[in-house]
Design a protein that fits this description.
Order of helices and strands: HHHHHHHEEEEEEHHHHH
Radius of gyration: 22 Å
Distance between the termini: 23 Å
Shape: globular
Helix content: 40-55%
Oligomer: single chain
Number of strands: 6
Structural class: alpha/beta
Strand content: 5-15%
Number of helices: 12
Length: 317
């Protein structure tokens, strides 16, 4: 909250970002979602409101802050306090334990996937999720590979895999996105060594007629779990096979044109990955185990959907 004594300053990119997200996040719907699970305290200091803690939780996702770092940022950064609806003169701010307990509340009641569902319900009402086509892909998320910790070993839920001649340790985030808007509708996670194709069926919502994927999804139509699905699979040709196409023949030109069309649709699946990795700075897992990290990834993609659709949502508002 502003005090009236602030010196006028430039509207920074961070302030503009928070002002836009403040307008597009469905706060009332999310508070209503969390409220039934929020414990009531009849003694001691009055607890912070759900919306205050939810705003702080989202600040953590957008700026990659741990619980202790978030507590310090609330003391150091007036902009964060303003966004979190904390009075400028309030000396009682949420500490790291309060922030941690709220995150555990969301994890215990599996509210992260419901947050994604709530956001996507809003986007569907705005006509942004058409559901006629789905593009699928996966990305690697790094995890600490060192054994210099209290347990003396690496995270058992993570695994190593080789890609492009280099070894990676961590997990994979698999997503299904709307082929028209590029907004994420389904998420799955696995250790890094799992093949992309193993989670393909889990990324479909069941209403699509067309599915697009890169060459890593070759053979999906022959897998047992894909039998009976009435969808058209549009899987990219292997790069080595594509190089053998003869551009001088009508067939070669037709196949090359088909690959370009598929690539233009499939590239939309890369946009959410760019948002969470480059915009939100999420490049490494923060927690131990797939469960906690999956909850964070679901929240991140819900927020990335709002970020990608913010101009439409602000215009509609």
């Amino acid at each position: 909250m502003m005090t009236g004594f602030e010196i006028a300053s430039k509207r920074t990119r961070k302030r503009i970002f928070l002002e836009e997200m403040d307008q597009v996040v469905p706060w009332d719907a999310l508070v209503e979602l969390i409220a039934p699970h929020n414990p009531k305290s009849s003694t001691g200091r009055p607890p912070f409101g759900i919306e205050v803690l939810l705003r702080i939780h989202f600040l953590q996702q957008w700026f990659g802050l741990s619980d202790p770092a978030m507590e310090e940022a609330l003391h150091d950064t007036p902009l964060y306090r303003e966004f979190a609806l904390l009075d400028a003169g309030n000396t009682h701010l949420p500490d790291e334990s309060t922030i941690l307990r709220f995150r555990h509340l969301l994890e215990a009641h599996q509210l992260a996937p419901q947050i994604l569902t709530t956001v996507n319900t809003l986007l569907t009402k705005q006509g942004l999720l058409l559901k006629s086509g789905t593009a699928v892909d996966a990305t690697l998320i790094a995890a600490p590979s060192s054994t210099k910790n209290s347990a003396g070993k690496r995270d058992p839920d993570m695994h190593q895999t080789k890609k492009g001649g280099s070894w990676y340790f961590g997990m994979k985030a698999h997503i299904g996105v709307d082929a028209d808007s590029g907004l994420v509708h389904t998420i799955a996670t696995t250790p890094a060594n799992a093949h992309d194709i193993t989670k393909t069926i889990n990324l479909l919502h069941g209403q699509e007629t067309d599915v697009f994927g890169d060459s890593g999804y070759r053979g999906i139509d022959k897998r047992e779990e894909a039998q009976g699905l009435e969808v058209a699979w549009h899987i990219a040709m292997m790069p080595s096979k594509r190089k053998t196409l003869n551009p001088q023949t009508a067939l070669g030109q037709l196949l090359e044109q088909a690959e370009k069309v598929k690539a233009k649709i499939r590239v939309k699946v890369e946009h959410p990955f760019r948002v969470i990795k480059c915009q939100f700075g999420y490049r490494k897992v923060r927690y131990v185990g797939l469960t906690k990290n999956t909850a964070q990834i679901q929240t991140l993609f819900a927020l990335s959907n709002l970020w990608m659709a913010r101009r439409h949502l602000m215009k509609a508002a």
